[in-house]
Target: pyridoxal kinase
Amino acid sequence: MKNKFILALSGNDIFSGGGLHADLTTYTVNKLHGFVAVTCLTAVTENGFEVFPTDKGIFSAQLSSLKDVDFSAIKIGLLPNIEIAQKSLDFIKSHSDCPVVLDPVLVCKENHDLEVSQLRDELIKFFPYVTIVTPNLAEAQLLTQTRITNLEEMKAAAKILYDLGAKHVVIKGGNRFHQEQATDVFYDGQDYKILEYPVLPQNNIGAGCTFASSIASQLVLGKSVLEAVAVSKDFVYQAIQSSDQYGVVQYEEN
Model:
């Protein structure tokens, strides 16, 4: 670990469960110094849950402010439009010496934002420059342009993402195939690793963000990619298990 500086390029969740809130909380639990460049704001309006991209000039100014920070890892979350994605990619290219975790948020659970889904081609451009890509099933389907209905198709999708340039892939399957079991698939171009945990009844707002930012944290702390994924799967499980009555994830140090 060269230092404790870790960055999130992520959005502000108005409900404070996911996005930068989950990222910074996860960094703090791991005793790391978290930075954030805010990609968007969110709000609930008469149109439902809406995403408001950060002005491109303001986002550029944020990145310029951080260009000389020697980060030990970077986590990328919601990139709301092509302009923000392109500026983020340029920033990542200039920090090629640190691990990067890409959580490709293509589908907002609340409204399936079409503008976000159109970012597929832009996000694939990140693959050669990131350490690991962490899509959920819906995102993996959009990225691979395939249908995923079982474990073997998850494995096939992970290979497609690898062939598109991703060095490591973990597809978060959740409980889509087994109501009582949450299943993820990790692939590094050679071997598959299946990660399974029981499904918990508690709400899991921000679980995907927490998972990705935990992986980034564990990479800073010296874990291998597979070790970081396994530790983070357990971390998210425990966080959901400790979540409060409102569905907001609570974190406790071991």
The CA atoms of residues 243 and 250 lie 5 Å apart. The first strand starts at residue 5 and ends at 10. DSSP finds nine helices and ten strands in the chain.
